[in-house]
Amino acid sequence: MAVNDSFQGVSRSTHTYALLRAFVNELARCGVRAACTSPGSRNAPLVLSLAGESDISCFSHIDERCAGFFALGLAKASGVPVAVTCTSGTAAAELAPAVIEAYQAGVPLLVLTADRPPELRESGAGQTIDQLKLYGDAVKWFFEVDPARADDEKAADEPPSAALESRLRWIRTLACRAYWRALEGRPGPVHLNFPLREPLMLDGLLPGDATGRAAGEPYLRRPLGSPGGGDARKVLDRALSAARRGLVVAGRYERGPAALSAQGGAHATAGAAAAAFCASRGWPLLADPLSGARRGPAAIAHYDAILRAAASGKQDAAMTPDLVVRVGDLPTSKPLRDWLGSLPGVPQLALDPESVWQDPAAVLTASLALDPADTLGGLAAEPAPLRAGDADWLARWRSADELAGEAMLGVLAEHGASEPIVARELGVLLPESATLFVASSMPVRDIESFWPAREDPPRVLCNRGANGIDGTVSSAFGVCAHQAQQQANGPVVLLIGDVALAHDIGALIAARRLDLALTLVLVNNGGGGIFEFLPVARNSLARGADDVYTRHVATPTGIDFGAAAALYGVSHELVADVPGFRAALERAFAAAGSSIIEVATERESNRTIHEAVWQASKAAIAPA
After folding, report:
1. Last residue of a domain, which of 156, 182, 215?
2. Is there a smaller number of Cβ atoms within 10 Å at the N or the C end of the chain?
3. pLDDT tens digit string along 463-473?
């Protein structure tokens, strides 16, 4: 195919073909050597992309059923995934017998079905059936791929060249995921459904694509074998031996025997291992409190503020790593996620025994089936590596951390009982035996931004699977029940906002009915405070005479939480300042039963305080 060096003015068909070319090229880099095609119009972009890849042999078939079983035989004989593609409609259904056989027999197939786009479904358009999860449980993984609309959210904020580059990285990662998923564990088929829009023929020159890894390497490796197996460990050891400025990012990780512990300390085995590893190597540790790793001399507590300064161009390039090791979920911090996404040339390895693929920016180099606690704990116990690292590497991060922290506390001292200071106070006051449950939205962000590093952090939990606020109170009471069953002495505290509490207020009945003791720290800012940080809060249409924003977005509840507490037999105390909050927390821990400590804040001033903290941190890290 002809290539155009320019990214500007890319048409829809050119964009689609560019992504499909990268997708097929990545399949070849991973190891796909054969594909089976059958005729059709809607799948023409897939067929032409497969046939245009020099490292893949394409076998043409008239009948999709024959194509499927031919691919099955190829994959059975070679042990390598074989791609098979077809057009939309019942053509995709013809592949079902081969897909089912592949699943039952453990044969790796990559089933690439073309489809009509959503706007043509259930509208009388020809050759259009429901192809979503068409093969049911007979595939290891299903994914709907829409090349024309991939990553639209980023596209709005990026120039055309950057937007297309990010999409190319995304689809290369997707191809690798499909390949490794078909092979990992018991092999089997993977189904990718491609809704393709007209025009279906290339109407221009393809833009250049420099997103592939050097020397024909796959964009993302997932070494096969049992967790902790030799290949994955070799990849990690090679990367560690080459690094002079390594860095560990640790997010929520709740797996393993440690997650079942009722007492502080043991619950953070993976976190403690990450802290010990970074201390032994002299590497900065950027750890979300949900990881249990924000501890030890290498922990950088204020990375959110530091990386906000980096985004404004005030961070020294000498703080850029040459290797990133990632453990658990990605932390919540958007500046951290954006920063990791801005390092496409830096190797990034995930210790991911569950194949979760925490990589929205599509920049991971390898996903390794290695247990974080065992791997990092073992490395921390080994003698220091012979190769010298950057002697000032950790010191530069620690200096920025200290400066940001001092600036932050200076701002917070001026504002009384604010939402950030409540989060920080909990980080200081809670004993190691405590468990803090954090609501999504602002509370989990404030914990990440303002929680200090300490040697004996309490356990921190949050419903961050889907990041919703529903059921938060019930989940916190569930933690209380576990503590009671284990006869654990540590308190359970819930940090929650007024909207999240209103969402699950009926759960307070568990306090009296189930005789459970939960301390709820309620930050009541009269609505959804997180929305104040979004453009909708300052939109002239939303903030017009009718104030649609307040009614429909911020949604203040107007609930008298003292009256609600009395209804459910829960004690309630309203505090106005930091000393009052500390005293209320002590009283709640000493009393029997559940209680609500309510801290009244204000949405707009909360945004102002956060902005002042960020500005002060930037100025402290890199004074003008």
Report:
1. 215
2. C
3. 998 888 999 99
